[in-house]
Amino acid sequence: MAVNLNDSRRADGRGWGPGWPNCDTSKWVELDVLSPAGKVVRFPAHRVSSENGQLKFSEEVTFGGSVREEIRELVSLLLQVSERRGFINLQPGWCWGGACRAIKRSDGTLTETPSNHSWGLALDINAPENPFGGSTHTIERPMADLWNEYGFRWGGDYSTTKDWMHMEFMGTREDAKEMAEKAGKELAQEVDELTPEQEKAIKRMSTFLDELTEKLGKAADEPVSDSEDAAPKGAASRVARVVLASEKE
């Protein structure tokens, strides 16, 4: 089945509950993606305010996530596949999801119509490279076609001002479930396969951890003098966790 990308109903008319100005963020969940290069790209939810009719963003996060839980796995797969196929190079700090706000006009002022961001159903990807109303963009037709196949409309297809960064889910909650299952069958294996860069990184880390564990293990087995501190139990595991965590930063 296919999602009607030209459905004129608002998200509340498709069963997603209230949007702006009464956003229900209780079903929003955090979204982050580990890129093929090993970077963690987080899609935060931004605080949004209006000053003299102009939309203003703050870096401060006001709620616990950026997309509806029903589309989290679907979006994660689409983002990872988009990178693996070379459609986009996700950048930390350039991407966001949920925002409790109305749709903005090309001059930056706000309309009275809720944005799909206010339901946690829209993403802005690499915003500086894909500006609203801009003349250049890095998201191209092949990436849009991929996302279209799984129920997302691209802002680059708008008949009015182009919103090159924007992807929004146009289906119902039942559609979201079916699209997630479809993506799981068709895209999950592609994501599970390691890229050459990931294989090299894992090999380097494995070698380092083997050496580290061996050295710490030997230190723990050796006699300890009164002037020395004993090697703490579990040190290798703790150090390993710290190193792995640092690789994701």
In words, what does this structure look like?
With 249 residues, the chain is α+β, with helices and mostly antiparallel strands. 32% of the residues lie in helices and 16% in strands. It has six helices and eleven strands. It has a three-stranded antiparallel β-sheet with strand order 9-11-10. Strands 1-6 form a two-stranded antiparallel ribbon. A two-stranded antiparallel ribbon has the order 2-3. Helix 1 runs parallel beside helix 3 and helix 5 runs antiparallel to helix 6. The longest helix is centred in the last third of the chain and has 26 residues, at 196-221. The protein starts with 27 loop residues before the first strand and ends with a helix.
Secondary-structure element series: EEEEEEHEEEHEEHHHH
Low-confidence stretches: none
Please tell me what the overall shape is: elongated
Rg estimate, integer Å: 22 Å
Helix fraction bin: 25-40%
Arrangement of strands in the largest sheet: 9-11-10
Q: SS-based structural class?
A: alpha+beta
Oligomeric nature of the chains: single chain
Instruction: Give the termini separation.
Output: 39 Å
User: What share of the residues does DSSP label as strand, in percent?
Assistant: 15-25%
Count of helix runs: 6
Query: Largest sheet at a glance?
Result: 3 strands, antiparallel
